[in-house]
Amino acid sequence: MSQTPGDGKHRAQWASSLGFILAAAGSAVGLGNIWKFPGKAYNGGGASFIIIYIIIVAVIGTTAMLAEFVIGRNTQKNAVGAFRQLNKKFSWVGGLGVFTGFLIFGYYSQVGGWVIYYIVSYIVCPGRIFADPKLFFYEMLGQNGFPWLGAIICPLIFMGLVIFVITKGVEVGIEKINKILMPSLFVLLIILTIRSVTLPGAAEGLHYLLTPDFSKLNFNTVLMALGQAFFSLSLGMGIMVTYGSYLKKEENLVKNVGLICTLDTIVALMAGFMIIPAVFATGVEPGMGGGFAFVSLAGVFEKMPGGPIFGCMFYLLLFFAALTSAISIMEGTVAYVTEEKKMSRKKATAIIGVLTFIIGIFYTLSQLYASIKGIWFDFANGVTFPAFGDFLEFLTDRLLTPLGSLTFCIFVGWVWTTKKGIAEVERDGTYTFKLKKIWSVLVKFIAPLAILTILIGGMVFGLALS
Ligand code: TRP
Question: Which of ligand 1's atoms lies nearest the C-alpha of 321?
Fold first, then answer.
């Protein structure tokens, strides 16, 4: 049963069903759930946004995830190899996913490095953070010089950890670390949520999260919920193709999709219940932009009894979430390079690591220049170019991942055909896929249409999906 890690010769396989579920949930639960979701829920009107988000995950998210799993498990290949085997004309779709992973991994490991910096700082010098949270953040980004800590040392530590796990392989590395980190993440999340909702004054935040205000719901909010759902479920990059390819043939795919989507959504909701009541209770200005997790939350921890300890726990939680997601993003590209380019796992991780690290450094530098030192590019008198960091996020979150998911759904729905997809789920009669008719309609029509709406809406409404 046990096989060598995916070294290009033997196919790796998850050792247990639980291991796979935790690894896939580990991929899904990331910065998106804990850092992005609460801010969006807040801006999107609280309860009404949450209701729309849940409907989207339940209808479109599950559909698209199953599409990725059936491709992966059927071919037992990485994203590019899978398409090459099923229909050569579509291998660019897998290639696009691998490329997107490359870009996301660059900035994800920078933010992961910042999180490590904050875990240590909340232990060593919480007073300095509380004294001036913005200054502390900007200093990390290199206000007084080159950001050695923010852009080089901390991201290197984060990436080193990811590479360490990846080189250990699928079973011994990825599966094992998720089995430890995911339960720890849940424990931290429960402690922090209880702390938040029991703060005096938290009731107002709870009320905001529980009372729908449909007047705040508009086309923009729905688009925001759609984009968030795809990012949060790790869809559109072929990562779920790769993770699905390590699955045993006897696994029940539909049940697994349900569990992973449920776990991901529970974590996002809990993160909302952890952050929003605390923000209301402490009266902190809830600026929910990019610096929120690093700047605004310092105000919350400062006013909370036991703040530094809970602060440290919060960044530890963010760290676990970011690490397991980053591992999945890198595995997507590593699986491609080892299998298609016949390279060893060690060599593949080293090359990908170096290249993505270079992209990542530019991300932090662009944050530095865009927000502190002025503009990033200024070509002759006032022609400013968007910061590289914003451009990178725009490209990956708003453009490439929805495009990836759209093509996966169209491929399964129309090219490979839902008949083969359903057969893969049913495994020649081992399971009965009760919702097969509904899934066929969803994967052929509803999901592609909804994704097209995000793509076009994202272009038209610009920042609406950030
Ligand atoms: N889902 C992760 C989060 O919520 C991020 C992530 C991991 C991701 N793998 C992905 C996003 C693949 C898009 C595609 O933070």
Answer: 15
Phi, psi of 379 (to 5 degrees): -85, 110
Residues in the chain: 466
- Which DSSP letter does residue 76 get? T
- 126 close to 307: Cβ distance less than 8 angstroms: yes
Angle at 449 between CA 105 and CA 28, to 5 degrees: 30
Q: How many whole angstroms from 309 Cα to the centroid of ligand 1?
A: 28
| Separation between Cα atoms, residue 223 and residue 219, nearest integer Å | 6
Q: What is the rounded CA–CA span in Å between residue 319 and residue 409?
A: 32
Going from the Cα of 418 to the center of ligand 1, the distance in angstroms, rounded, reads: 26
Q: Rounded to the nearest 10 degrees, what angle do helices 17-28 and 176-197 cross at?
A: 50
Does any ligand 1 atom lie closer than 6 A to the CB of residue 238?
Answer: no
As a whole number of angstroms, the distance between CA 156 and CA 36 comes to: 23
Q: Is 385 helix (H, G, I), strand (E, B) or coil?
A: strand
Q: Which of 93, 96, 328, 401 to mutate to test the pocket of ligand 1 (most atoms within 8 A of CB)?
A: 328
Q: What is the pLDDT of residues 155-210, one digit of tens each?
A: 999 999 999 999 999 989 999 999 999 999 999 999 999 999 999 999 999 999 99
Residue 231, ligand 1, Cβ within 6 A: yes
Which tokens hold the place of 388?
């590289």
Residue-wise DSSP of 279-305: HHHHT-----SGGGGTTHHHHHHHHST
pLDDT in tens, 103-153: 889 889 999 999 999 999 999 999 999 999 988 988 888 877 788 888 899
- Enter the pTM of the model: 0.91
As given in the structure block, the two tokens for residue 90 are: 């579509």
329 C-beta closer than 6 A to ligand 1? yes
Structure tokens at 257: 């999709």
Instruction: Calculate how far, in angstroms, residue 208's C-alpha sits from the geometric centre of ligand 1.
Output: 27
Cβ of residue 109 lying under 6 Å from some atom of ligand 1:
no
* DSSP 8-state secondary structure symbol assigned to residue 33: I
Ligand 1 centre and the CA of 305: distance in Å?
33
Distances (CA, A) of 316 to 34, 112, 185, 426: 12, 11, 8, 40
Eight-class DSSP state of 29:
S
